[in-house]
Amino acid sequence: MASQYVRTHVDVSDPTLTALRAMLEVKQEVAPWVTLQIVAFPQEGILSYPNGEALLEEALRLGADVVGAIPHFEFTREYGVESLHKTFALAQKYHRLVDVHCDEIDDEQSRFVETVAALALKLEMGDKVTASHTTAMHSYNGAYTSRLFRLLKLSGINFVANPLVNIHLQGRFDSYPKRRGITRVKEMLEAGINVCFGHDDVFDPWYPLGTANMLQVLHMGLHVCQLMG
Fold first, then answer.
1. Cα-based distances in Å from 184 to 70, 135, 157
2. Cα–Cα distance between 101 and 152 in angstroms, integer?
3. Tens digit of pLDDT for each residue in 58-87?
4. Ranges for the Amidohydrolase domain (predicted)?
5. Which of 53, 78, 104, 187 is catalytic?
6. Could you read off the pLDDT of 199-223 as tens digits, one per residue?
């Protein structure tokens, strides 16, 4: 069993875009066997990093398939919201998909997913937009979440939870009880919102134990998200 479709996030913070250029070559090399989709990912932010927006746009010109963003990593909430507006503008300009590292933090005040969904709804881009991680949703209060779910459903955006990496990284600043720190997979599925599982990091400083085996991801997800009953 092997993965025939892969979406990879390539850091475009490097002024030379070396990693992106290399991955574009890899995409061509593996094309007979694997459909490789490349996300131009501004790891250091779009507005909070020198020339971040220009580097992101250059990556799209070179051939990246998807526009990425990381609003919760921007210096301020205002920067985060503006970065999403710029992300959607670039996606429209270059006819690309959108995949946002969104609210991957334990801070219950990180609520950029509402901006992602609102923009997707307004621009009628829902099926082209993915919010990845959204781990902060684990900590949202019930009243806010109830209101949020209506917008998420209307927008038609997609979600990707990453059980292996999310359970490894989140909750590290908690004493006890420790939160699981994974988005509300079960509740979103019950609400008719499209949710998928992803591996995320395979072998890097964020997660050193990956095997790229999606069955391991599914196994962990079924347990952590309590999907068996």
1. 20, 8, 15
2. 16
3. 999 999 999 999 999 999 999 999 999 999
4. 23-226
5. 104
6. 999 988 889 998 999 999 999 999 9
Q: CA-CA distance, 69 to 101, in Å (whole number)?
A: 6
Tell me the pTM: 0.96
Q: Which two tokens stand for residue 196?
A: 């998928």
Q: Which helix (H) or strand (E) holds 88?
A: helix 77-94
28 domain residue, yes or no: no
Q: Is residue 229 part of a domain?
A: no
CA 218 to CA 168: how far, in whole Å?
A: 15
In a domain, 22, yes or no: no
pLDDT of residue 74: 99
For residue 103, being part of any structural domain is answered with yes
Residue 113 contacts residue 82 (beta carbons within 8 Å): no
Residues 16-31 pLDDT 10s:
999 999 999 999 999 9
104 is catalytic: yes
Structural domain range at position 72: 39-224
Domain containing residue 130: CATH number: 3.20.20.140
Specify the number of domains making up the chain.
Answer: 1
Give yes or no for a cis peptide into 42 (omega within 30° of 0): no
The answer to whether 45 touches 70, Cβ cutoff 8 Å, is yes
- What is the pLDDT, as a whole number, of residue 1? 54
Read off the tokens for 135: 């781990």
What are the respective helix, strand and coil percentages of the chain, to the nearest 5? Answer: 45, 15, 40
What backbone phi and psi angles, to 5 degrees, belong to 93? -65, -40
